[in-house]
Write a structure and sequence with these properties.
The chain is mainly alpha-helical. The chain is built from nine helices and two strands, in the order E-E-H-H-H-H-H-H-H-H-H.
């Protein structure tokens, strides 16, 4: 549900930036201890409960003693066994995959329709690429396997860029710069006219803050343009990679092209990280202006 905001940046329906999940999601937790995992296994807790219940019902300590002995042997051998550790690690990896899919579903629901369509188109292109690679002979598939992994990274980055772009749109209205510039001009004019020294100092501080905010908005707008340009490049890279696989171009040629795009993507990701604190400052300023 969107909220209508009426403040220093006008009257618009921005939605909630925090509703757009981070992508990729944070790494899922790993088991703190395989011993603790073994203790918490359903079969183990049920077994202990049954032993305790049998001892209570029969008023005989033997079931409890046998249960304790079995528990000691279980904890001595099972947690450190290779099959159990592999099974626990596999279970956590599956939990991470499930959580990742849930976050992706939430994120796609938050995207603007046009950006949602962009994602679906890229996903369809990625599926075509995979089908084309799978149709090659075994040696070609082996040569292309590393490049397919790079495409997975680019696809993840693409979704992350869509999420960031959506958050930018919710932080600021499309005409944010014009509105801030108008406020800055008004504040500067008030400062120039003001004769009282104390009031003038406050107005100077306000002008300084507005200049900083205007600079921050310029950086965000630049990032918006960078994101769109980078995503265009990524879409074209997927299409070109498919063309080159179909036309049997050397895998080394495909690798060189992907490395160039990945370098650009990493540069854009660094810009986004640098801008993240700026977004929080703008959001805090807007809350203060309303409060």
């Amino acid at each position: 549900m969107k909220r209508r905001v009426s403040d220093s940046l006008g009257d618009w329906d921005p939605g909630d930036p925090s509703a757009v999940p981070e992508w990729p999601p944070q790494a899922a937790p790993k088991p703190a201890s395989h011993l603790r995992e073994a203790l918490g296994e359903t079969a183990n807790t049920v077994g202990l409960a049954l032993a305790g219940a049998a001892a209570l019902v029969t008023a005989n300590p033997v079931p409890l003693v046998l249960g304790a002995a079995a528990e000691a042997l279980y904890l001595l051998f099972v947690p450190d066994s290779r099959p159990y550790r592999l099974w626990v690690d596999q279970r956590y990896r599956q939990l991470a995959r499930d959580e990742r899919e849930k976050v992706k579903e939430r994120l796609l629901l938050e995207l603007a329709p046009r950006d949602h369509e962009r994602w679906l188109n890229l996903q369809a292109l990625r599926d075509r690429l995979q089908a084309t690679v799978d149709a090659q002979d075994e040696s070609t598939r082996s040569l292309l396997s590393g490049e397919v992994a790079k495409l997975d990274y680019l696809q993840d980055a693409f979704l992350g860029f869509l999420a960031t772009k959506e958050r930018y749109s919710r932080y600021l209205p499309p005409n944010a710069r014009e509105l801030l510039q108008e406020r800055l001009d008004d504040a500067a004019a008030c400062e120039e006219r003001e004769e009282d020294e104390g009031v003038r100092k406050v107005l100077q501080q306000n002008v300084s803050l507005l200049k900083e905010r205007l600079d921050a908005v310029d950086r965000i707008e630049r990032n918006r343009r960078m994101l769109d340009a980078q995503m265009d490049s990524m879409e074209n890279t997927f299409a070109l990679t498919l063309d080159r696989i179909v036309s049997l171009r050397p895998p080394s040629e495909i690798a060189s092209q992907l490395e160039t795009v990945i370098t650009g993507v990493e540069t854009t990701e660094n810009l986004i990280r640098e801008t993240a604190p700026v977004l929080e400052q703008i959001r805090e300023a807007e809350f203060q202006s309303r409060g």
